[in-house]
Write a structure and sequence with these properties.
With 549 residues, the chain is an alpha/beta fold. The protein is built from 19 helices and 26 strands. The strands form 7 sheets. It has a 5-stranded parallel beta sheet with strand order 4-3-5-6-7, with helices on both faces. Strands 12-13-14-15-16 form a 5-stranded mixed beta sheet.
Length: 549
């Protein structure tokens, strides 16, 4: 693999070396449609011809609006082969935000793939070249399948250089409007080569892709890793078939955000209560059988490297999985550093931390405790935003992450909060909510948590109950939540102690704009909606308040 120095050269290497190997597996109506490397290459080159016939030229910006699917990967490779720059757009965004990104990014075309509700998003697309994938019911001016049917494969395709702009990735952001982080070919090349050197998994492994490929973690950790490793990647057909699809694949590596790991735990405990599970795990031989059965059911029986990222994960949850023989490595990175940052790795995993710096990463803390990162994989800046770009870097070229942290004696980094998330109570004390939220989230009756307190004497915990929590009576749920909070309060500073828990009526979701596509709470949106209620909730006679009552 000595001649590989870009995603395109990696893809062509595997087309030549393993042409008949399955590259993409897409479930459609419960049947898998597959593409070998050779078949995908031919289809991608036909799409390149189609883009050229529609007037697209090297350097043009081409957007990609789709959920994860085989066509997402092929579209991205076609955009690269045409010498164009990709603009991935989250498939859950509304028409106004889609329009804002397409106009700001100066996209000349958009490829539209698998979506849940294109009808509600369609008006957001301006008068640019539109290519629809009929396989997913998208009928547009140009048809992907028609191009595959009628076009000749492009004989000559673009050769990537390390310093050229490859993509502009608009951040989902828990605060503010989306900003387009510009990344070169070299950023992804160095990241994946570093990952391949430190994360040891079988050759030409199997991957399962379900978190948005528009997000840097999935795009780099799955799409680019698949291309560089000559792997096979499968996709879920729907949310309803997710568990079945994952179980059928048994990938060699798996990345989940904390919400996913919590959901898995909840489903296991629904079928096997904790007392019964503990008892079975304690029986020689039977315990191992139970572990293997759960691993297989989850789809993780072959996974040799499991990761969690995007938000903090509770140590107690990782310890729970460890008893099942599933080791979770917490990692840390962001769009702006192309996730070349800090990782725990198999065999070097310190629970409660996000790991040590990866090779090629220089990290330090500012005098205020903010984590600063420098590497060759940092973004070139925000597209058309020189002032915002300048705000993100120190005078000596370090990226300001906005996260607060501490290093231990072994060089492991612990995230202690986010500077922008800090709020001030009316006592004038600043509070970092993240560590408090992490402790409360250990309660399996809690699905989502947001600790707030602007303008009131003590913080409140806004809680969305989990499935198991929702099944409890109000009294039972009240008792469960307050027990967790009262135990936690004993270890908090007086000004940090939680005064009340508020059980929310509405589930926070990507669809209602209260969570990012990577399932992080949009704190500013939650605050905006509920801020005026804080004094009323704080003065409520009950310690656990049910919203609307």
């Amino acid at each position: 693999m000595e001649n590989i120095n870009s995603p395109l050269s990696a893809f062509q290497y595997w087309v030549g070396k393993s042409p008949k190997r399955t590259f993409l597996r897409q479930p459609i109506d419960r049947q898998y449609k597959t593409w070998t490397f050779e078949e995908a290459d031919k289809e991608i080159r036909k799409i390149v011809s189609g883009l050229q016939s529609a007037g697209l030229k090297k350097g043009d910006h081409v957007a990609l609006l789709s959920k994860n699917c085989a066509h997402w990967v092929m579209a991205d490779l076609a955009i690269m082969m045409g010498g164009c720059i990709s603009i991935p757009i989250y498939p859950t965004l509304d028409a106004d935000t889609i329009h804002e990104i397409l106009v700001h990014s100066e996209s000349k075309a958009v490829i539209i793939g698998k979506l849940d509700d294109y009808a509600s998003q369609k008006d957001g697309i301006p008068n640019i070249v539109k290519i629809g994938v009929n396989t997913y019911g998208i009928d547009e001016t140009h048809h992907w399948e028609k191009w595959v049917e009628t076009k000749e494969p492009a004989a000559e395709v673009h050769t990537q250089s390390l310093d050229e702009l490859m993509t502009i990735m608009y951040t989902s952001g828990t605060t503010g409007n989306p900003k387009g982080a510009m990344h070169t070919v070299g950023s992804f090349d160095q990241l994946i080569k570093t990952a391949m050197a430190v994360i040891k998994i079988p050759e030409q492994p199997h991957y399962f892709s379900y978190l948005p490929m528009t997000h840097i973690a999935e795009r780099a950790g799955v799409e680019m890793s698949v291309i560089y490793r000559g792997a096979t990647v499968s996709f879920p057909e729907s949310l309803e078939t997710f568990a079945q699809d994952l179980s059928s694949v048994q990938p060699h590596t798996f990345f989940g955000v904390p919400r996913i790991w919590q959901k898995f735990q909840e489903k296991i405990l629904e079928k096997m209560p904790q007392k019964k599970l503990d008892k079975l795990l304690g029986i020689p031989f039977i315990g191992n059988v139970v572990k293997k059965k759960i691993q297989k059911k989850l789809g993780l029986s072959r996974s040799v490297a499991n990761f969690s990222g995007a938000a903090p994960i509770a140590v107690s949850l990782m310890e729970w999985y460890d008893k099942l023989g599933i080791k979770i490595n917490q990692a840390y990175g962001m769009t702006e550093d192309c996730i070349l940052s800090h990782f725990n790795l198999p065999g070097a995993n310190k629970l409660g931390t996000v790991g040590r710096p990866l090779p090629g990463v220089d990290s330090k803390l500012s005098p205020e405790g903010e984590i600063l990162i420098k590497s060759n994989c940092l973004m070139k800046g925000y597209f058309k935003e020189p002032e915002k770009t300048a705000e993100m870097f120190t005078a000596d070229g370090y990226l300001k992450t906005g996260d607060l942290g501490e290093f231990d004696h072994d060089g492991y980094l612990t995230i202690t909060g986010r500077s922008k998330d800090q709020f001030k109570t009316d006592k004038g004390k600043y509070i970092s909510p993240a560590p408090i939220e992490l402790e409360i989230s250990k309660n399996t009756d809690v699905e989502q948590i947001c600790v707030v307190g602007t303008g009131i004497p003590q913080p409140l915990a806004l809680v969305v109950p989990s499935e198991s929590g929702s099944k409890k009576s109000p009294n039972e749920l009240q008792k469960s939540l307050w027990q967790t909070i009262s135990e936690l309060n004993e270890s908090l500073q007086s000004y940090e102690k939680i005064a009340k828990a508020v059980v929310m009526q509405e589930i926070w979701s990507v669809e209602n704009g209260l969570m990012t596509p990577t399932l992080k709470v949009k704190r500013n949106r939650v605050e905006k909606i509920h801020l005026e209620k804080y004094p009323e909730w704080f003065n409520h006679q009950e310690r656990v308040v049910f919203e609307g009552q």
